[in-house]
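Peroxidase
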Amino acid sequence: MATNLAALVVLAAFLAGPAACEGASICFNGWLRLPTYNPWLCSRGSRTRGLPWQRGRSPSGLGLGHGYYDNRWSRSYCPRAEVIVRGAVRDAVAAYPGIGAGLIRLFFHDCFVRGCDASVLLTTTNSNNSDTEREGLPNKNSLRGFEVIDAAKAAIEAACPGKVSCADIVAFAARDASYFLSNRRINIRMPGGRYDGRESFANETDQLPGPFSNVAELQASFAAKGLTSDEMVTLSGAHTIGGARCMFFSSRFSEMDPAFAAKLRTQCNGNDDTNVNQDDVTPYVLDKQYYRNVIDRKVLFTSDAVLNSTDTMTQVRENANRAGAWERKFERAMENMGKIGIKTRADQGAEIRKVCSRVNN
Ligand code: HEM
Ligand SMILES: *[C@@H]1O[C@H](CO)[C@@H](O)[C@H](O)[C@H]1NC(C)=O
Ligand SMILES: *[C@@H]1O[C@H](CO)[C@@H](O)[C@H](O)[C@H]1NC(C)=O
Ligand SMILES: *[C@@H]1O[C@H](CO)[C@@H](O)[C@H](O)[C@H]1NC(C)=O
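Tokens:
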């Protein structure tokens, strides 16, 4: 009895203890190479909902619509909005395909933190916070493509001021980058109607799964946003384009295909900040090659390699082998990701930003 009571007191003290994310090192575990992970240590706040026994509901996307800017009689009429974004993305990707990878990732990092509300673009906020998501460990010196969003926004503001949100521009840009990088094989039906948020905090980027995450952590972080394990596997296929820094995978050369590891060792040459292609086979094409790479041990991160677990390997094989299967699933999963935590006109503290990097006055 006494020991039970003592245990209860310790537990209660622990649960009532200080906020979860003091030790940034603990809660950014998936981003830092640490020996152990204890979800309870990071369980206050959004992560709680991510534990496997507390799955989030699939995002409804209520308030979003296809052709949202095409209705002549609505307050959001801006028929050239999507055309302008597509042009900006086409030019940027033609000049430099890596930017397309950046735009797809920007959308993921926006949607997973505070929902798809362009909080990832802010450098200053309603509370005058400048330690925004951009400063967070997963984003700093890593996200790219901001200038494409800004160029599209400027052109859209010139055509129809105050109508099109930065959040929708990010979503359309990810759709269009997927289209061009897949040689037009991936056509995401991306609805519009998101409003922009007015806050952004660096510490909330710990909700993003990290390269050292295991399969349970990956599933939990996606479940916290209402996405399934299958969607997690499907969306991970985006690692068939773009690059990554050596610091995130140089600890696991010995687990990789030896020839692949040898090539990476040479490229990295002991430098943590060197950037290498994620997909060694078709580095600039958004295709299903990623899943063949998982099977062949030619992927970079722990979070990629662990998809060979019994829970996910069936999907990996199917995506690798069946033509068109992954592409269709990717279209749906991206559309679904675009519904996470969206804000609409009815929401307090939501707006159509004039400039994507700062809130309206
Ligand atoms: C499943 C969990 C995921 C983890 C742990 C993860 C982690 C990472 C890491 C560590 C990098 C390299 C960053 C750097 O070196 O600076 C990266 C790059 C990238 N990720 Fe992910 N990611 C995940 C899921 C996704 C998803 C869902 C998408 C999009 C649908 C995505 C798209 C990308 C792209 C396109 C790049 C290359 C970016 C560029 O070249 O600019 N990732 N990811
Ligand atoms: C995150 O940072 C903000 C301000 O930058 C702070 O108010 C908040 O308490 C922090 N949250 C956590 C969980 O540490
Ligand atoms: C933020 O700064 C502006 C101008 O510098 C000021 O008017 C406003 O009251 C500040 N807001 C907060 C929440 O501190
Ligand atoms: C998954 O791959 C890793 C190395 O990348 C290996 O150590 C592990 O045994 C594999 N697991 C299964 C179930 O095949």
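Residues 1-22, 44-54 have pLDDT under 50 and may be disordered.
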